Amino acid sequence: MTRRLNKSMGICMPCFGGAADDVVPTPDPETRRRQLAEAAEKRQKETNYRGVKNPEAVERKKKKQEEIEKQAMTTSSSGGGGLRWQVG
């Protein structure tokens, strides 16, 4: 029993012997920052599309709506094609 206990301690704590090869080196700060940013972006997307079956369709619809609004703004600002109010 003592032998098994010592062996398992070596696996958990590499400084007690033998398992130093199992330790994963820490990536450089730039790589770590990039990984954290990617993970945060992934979580954000998952949160935004929770319950949505087809997120690509939602994005297409959103872009189309923005284009329609943009076109409406340019049309109304040029003075042509909009509704006119007459008082009188």
TrEMBL record:
<feature type="region of interest" description="Disordered">
    <location>
        <begin position="19"/>
        <end position="88"/>
    </location>
</feature>
<keyword id="KW-0519">Myristate</keyword>
<keyword id="KW-0564">Palmitate</keyword>
<dbReference type="InterPro" id="IPR055366">
    <property type="entry name" value="SVIP_metazoa"/>
</dbReference>
<dbReference type="Pfam" id="PF15811">
    <property type="entry name" value="SVIP"/>
</dbReference>
<protein>
    <recommendedName>
        <fullName>Small VCP/p97-interacting protein</fullName>
    </recommendedName>
</protein>
<feature type="compositionally biased region" description="Basic and acidic residues">
    <location>
        <begin position="29"/>
        <end position="48"/>
    </location>
</feature>
<keyword id="KW-0449">Lipoprotein</keyword>
<dbReference type="InterPro" id="IPR031632">
    <property type="entry name" value="SVIP"/>
</dbReference>
<feature type="compositionally biased region" description="Gly residues">
    <location>
        <begin position="78"/>
        <end position="88"/>
    </location>
</feature>
<feature type="compositionally biased region" description="Basic and acidic residues">
    <location>
        <begin position="56"/>
        <end position="70"/>
    </location>
</feature>
